[in-house]
Amino acid sequence: MSPPFELAFKYMPTPAFIIESHTGKLLAYNRNFEVLFENFNATPADTWDTLCEDAVSLKDWASLNEQIQNGHINRCESLIRVGDKLINMQLEMQAMGDSVLACVYNTDHMDLAAAENTLLKFALTESSAGLWIWEVESDLVSCSKSIASLLHCSLEKTPHSTEEWHKIVHPDDVKRLARLVDEHVTHNQEHYEVEYRILRSDQSYLWVKEHGKTYSKDANGKVKKIVGFVVDISHQKALEEHLRNQATFDELTGLLTRGAAITHFKKQLGLAKRQYTPLTMAKIHLDAQNRLNTLPMEARNIAIQTSARYIYKKIREADVLARVEPDKLLLLLPNTSVKDAKTLLNHIIHPKEDEKTTLLEGNSDPMDFCIGIAVFPEDGETIEELALSANQAVENGQEKNKQISVN
């Protein structure tokens, strides 16, 4: 080293030493590394295999050096001989061509705050982050206060082991989380990311995203500590659920949308084909008299909503009802003949007195309904063909002023 760098190395605040790559010899160590040994009336060893309890021979250094040079290890933990003591130290290794710079951190009494500071840039990319550190071999989990806040509990009641952590993970998510973390440790990976639900002290589940990062490895490259954080993503999940519902359910009526209904229709059609059972489709025009078009938008929406809810209550559990146009519904009646379909639909166009009162209060009148019926397989062998036949039946019914029309 040149004199300026030699002086900087000697007085750098972090204990450090330099090892010759091909021999494992200690070429130099700074003042703070020397002080560690002076506290125990000792001096540093001359080679890696005599300094490190984990190393049996220089072959161990050769193996470790190869991983450092290849960039596979930049942190490791080792038992360092300091006089007659063995001190667990975390070593940050930096390849420097023919030598390796090792910066030392005593990890026997590692403070979680130190881990948080080390991962400051890692954590600042997220909000409401709860930090944790996991010592793999001892299975000790340490949580920060932010995790306690996230779980609505005291710091003492946060999980202290993987078993305790898994107890508060949703049963449907725990196997996936455990498998992903096991793979991370088994394959000595650098980081992972997973979403799951976690139980809070009020017994409610919170969606979180967990980011884990290998914090240190041993001299053999095995993961020793993992540090990470969990982030509250419940608002994001709520938005995703809302968007899924919007894509699946009609916002005004709550019925299935056309696209979502097709999946159910095709499933029922497949069953009818395999089991040779009847299948009937009904197209329901809610405004065959064009009365709703004369109403203000708000009143028209109330009428459509009222009609849809009324019809939904009248159908059976196995039936599938969808809003396919602003004023048209499509009803699939599995295992139903034309005769049975007519009976059900007649109950719809002829409401009871209390039902009629509710409909009229909601601007709806069953006399406006016109229903076209199509039957599998006579009127079509696909959902699209049946829908076209049912639509044609509606048009025929309007022309002939019939409320129920069969193709």
From TrEMBL:
Residue ranges of domain GGDEF in the record = 277-407
Going by the entry's taxonomy, the superkingdom of the source organism is recorded as: Bacteria
Q: Where is the PAC domain?
A: 192-245
InterPro entries linked to this entry? Biofilm_reg_signaling (IPR052155), GGDEF_dom (IPR000160), Nucleotide_cyclase (IPR029787), PAC (IPR001610), PAS (IPR000014), PAS-assoc_C (IPR000700), PAS-like_dom_sf (IPR035965), PAS_fold_3 (IPR013655)
Q: What is this protein called?
A: Diguanylate cyclase
Species assigned in the record: Marinomonas hwangdonensis
* Organism lineage string: Bacteria, Pseudomonadati, Pseudomonadota, Gammaproteobacteria, Oceanospirillales
